[in-house]
């Protein structure tokens, strides 16, 4: 008797005839692809490419949104407008106001600067106070905008804006920048929230705030007649004219502007009227226009 285990016999040829499941699946898929007609491959490739182009355009290029940056080349200037301005935030970094003071757009002087001030109920743009003070010191008509957030109540955001922004006579009316609607909220409830912010701020400054948005958002979410009482600042990039058919005061027509004193790109805007009209829009000069 021995302690050694018996030697296992080698597998018979039947074991070699059974392919692995993984190999069988792979052969099956290859076989399936081989049996598909050539037009099916072509159609599938075209669909994949088309989907990729659509996604890229929608998120990075579409001129009615805010998801892209200067992919069309040099900024285009709408014809027939002479009152030009810019809007800025901390994204422009440090601005050389001595150079910006004499900047020209299409041989017209820069007239107004609108500055990001607050966002939501807690954020303050880190360069707001510096930019806001310099805009006044260097002789521009200035304004301040609040960026709407769906994570805070309208009341909280309104009082946050009023706490940090102190507009003076000669400044543009306060601006509400609103670009996104909350998911799961009806249009009516969303409009009610927007009106809450507008009414609180209007009660403070006794002027109608300016609403900034893009024209498709306006038509979808802010089409109630009550919003027609407010001045509009419409964003619509790289088009010869604004597609929005209603009344508007400002048009943000490109985000690819270049000016001395600012490194990188800056948004260009035009005012729909004369310089006299722009002055009359400011706080203390409206003469019951609304």
Mean pLDDT: 84
C-alpha Rg (nearest Å): 29 Å
The side-by-side strand order for the widest beta sheet comes to: 1-3-5-6-7-8-9-10
| Number of strand segments | 10
Largest sheet: 8 strands, mixed, barrel
Roughly how many Å apart are the termini? 112 Å
Q: How do the helices and strands follow one another from N- to C-terminus?
A: HHHEHEEEHEHEHEHEEEH
* Percent of residues in β-strands: 15-25%
Q: Output the number of helix runs.
A: 9
Q: Indicate the overall shape.
A: globular
Unreliably modeled segments: 1-14, 59-70
| Structural class based on helices, strands and sheet pairing | alpha/beta
Helix content: 25-40%
Can you put this structure into words, describing what you see?
There is one protein chain. The N and C termini lie far apart (112 Å). Strands 1-3-5-6-7-8-9-10 form an 8-stranded mixed barrel, surrounded by 4 helices. Strand 3 and strand 4 (123-124) form a beta hairpin. By secondary structure, it is an alpha/beta fold. It has helices spanning 13-16, 21-35, 38-61, 97-100, 128-137, 154-164, 187-205, 215-221, 275-281; strands at 84-88, 104-105, 108-119, 123-124, 141-147, 175-177, 210-214, 232-235, 250-257, 266-271. The chain is globular and about 75 Å long. Helix 6 runs parallel beside helix 7 (187-205).
